[in-house]
Design goal:
two-stranded antiparallel sheet; TIM Barrel; globular; single chain
Length: 325
């Protein structure tokens, strides 16, 4: 009996063929590794994020060297301040923890691409991303401090600033501050599409940034919305963003695809703390093959349209990629 049908399996019959026709690739140069830097001396594990630690400046230098050895080209620094106040003063202080961290990294490896998270939430007792007036997170008054924070990071040596606060107008405020100080070539990686997500739980332990009252739903996005994501991104592009981000990643691959198709700027996906913790927890129990899951997860984000992967798995994935060569 002669049948007529397509033999799709021909291109799957050999590992070399599968590699040759693979459409989406994860490379170590795709990674930005998030780091938590603190004034507290030493290296301290973050219980809900196995393998991720709070680092002091000396440990940060060691971590920078380790990342460089793995070929990871970029990091994103989150700071844990020594003190908090209502104006989030350490966020934009010359000797703030992020500013010191940037200088420490650059002294260890000047070629490391250093991006910094720009926000106020870690630095004030309320744990919110803007200035508090009564029970309100006020938008316009917050912009000056957010812009000052970004400028202070760049003056310390940051290569990229990444505002995560979700205040309207923050990209325009930061672009104006940077350009006014002569930093016209410093790019802004905008958390353009940041959802009010339950996947951030472990991060709030890591960054000591849980809200003291209410939640962040008045400024972060409703997880049910996609068209709103495009409006948010469109505003940030018009205000001067150079790169866009979707956060979280796994439950939002459709949003990554929609943003990718609408805009021609480089697009980052932030594989957030809760996504990381779930994989680690299941792997510790022997329920999943961690290596296979991690690489499938990251490949899925690239397939959805991400150009850049911000992930706590960067070190693990870099080792996997090295071993597979």
């Amino acid at each position: 009996m002669t049948l007529s049908f397509e033999r799709h399996r021909r291109l799957r019959s050999h590992a070399g063929l599968r590699d040759l026709v693979r459409e989406s690739h994860v490379r170590v140069t795709d990674f930005i590794y998030p780091l938590f830097v603190t004034h507290e001396q030493g290296r301290h594990p973050i219980s809900s994020m196995p393998g991720v630690d709070h680092l002091d400046l000396d440990e940060l230098r060691r971590e920078t060297h380790a990342l460089s050895e793995l070929g990871i080209p970029a990091m994103m620094i989150f700071g844990i301040p020594a003190m908090k106040d209502e104006l989030s003063s350490e966020a934009y202080a010359d000797e703030g923890i992020v500013q010191q961290a940037v200088r420490a990294v650059k002294s260890e490896n000047p070629r490391m691409l250093v991006s910094t998270d720009v926000c106020l939430c870690q630095y004030n007792p309320a744990g919110h991303c803007g200035i508090i007036r009564g029970d309100q997170i006020v938008n316009d008054e917050s912009l000056e401090l957010i812009a000052a924070t970004a400028l202070s990071h760049v003056q310390a040596g940051a290569d990229v600033v990444a505002p995560s606060d979700m205040m309207d107008g923050r990209i325009a405020a930061i672009r104006s501050a940077l350009d006014g100080a002569g930093h016209v070539h410093t790019p802004i990686l905008s958390y353009a599409v940041k959802y009010a997500s339950a996947f951030y739980g472990p991060f709030r332990e890591a960054a000591h940034s849980a809200p003291a009252f209410g939640d962040r739903r008045t400024y972060q996005m409703d997880p049910a919305n996609v068209r709103e994501a495009l409006r948010e991104a469109r505003s940030d592009v018009a205000e001067g963003a150079d790169m866009l981000m979707v956060k979280p990643a796994l439950a939002y691959m459709d949003v990554i695809r929609a943003v990718k198709e609408e805009f021609d700027l480089p697009l980052a996906a932030y594989n957030v703390s809760g996504e990381y913790a779930m994989v680690k927890a299941a792997a510790e129990r022997g329920w999943i093959d961690e290596r296979a899951i991690v690489m499938e997860l990251l490949t899925g984000l690239k397939r959805a349209g991400a150009d850049v992967l911000i992930t706590y798995f960067a070190k693990d994935a870099a080792r996997y990629l090295r071993e597979s060569v």
